[in-house]
Amino acid sequence: MKLHFYKYQGTGNDFVIIDNRKGDMKPLHHEQVKKICNRKFGIGADGLMIMNHLEGYDFEMLYFNADGFPGSMCGNGGRCMVKFAGDMGINAYTYRFMAVDGEHLAEIDEQGWIKLKMKEVNTVIYENGHAVLDTGSPHLVKRVHDIENVDVVETGRHIRNSKEFVEKGINVNFVEALDDDTIFVRTYERGVEDETLSCGTGVTAASLISAHHERGFNRIEVKTPGGRLSVEFEKMSDHQFQNIWLCGPATRAFNGEIDI
What DSSP state is assigned to residue 67? Predict the structure, then answer.
């Protein structure tokens, strides 16, 4: 079977996108998804997304991790899907789409950055020098010094497979403050089981924990190995955050067909 695909990336977090709004695509087995995402034998990507038609919304976003299995919400993936929607002629001032964690809103600003509204966060667990929270996907945020020399893969894999997290898995973010408004984030992603160049929900989690204002509006600038993002949000308390927006670029890399 030939499958037409599009390849997009948001700050180096890359995805294969398939347009299934007509609903005529056969379901993909997880081994097929895994092969498509494989960087040696397939197209190569951190994840695969399917755009479906959904009544009352601009589209539905289905997300699969690079291991072939359905994943939780992907922030950079969501931004890439909005860019893809615009490229496919779905034009809206404010996009509304459904993902695994519920409804999302998004906008494309004058500079071409995609602003994606994330789910509210009402629980943050602080323990042992790190924070655990869910921004659409579960994340552990750990503050570090000299982040460029942190062994993200070894340390992240150890935490992800620890007794506390091994069953469901967790994404592990290492964050260093560069100045009062800017942080540097590196992320080990479950499902990819490696460091990725950027993780949208991870950047969001790290930004919430790094808020520079005790209450009210915050905007955090974020450096990742794959590029720059920003996160805007209202901090209600150390455990509650609302009106969260992940902002950054997304671009098409190429498109083509693959035999699966």
Answer: T
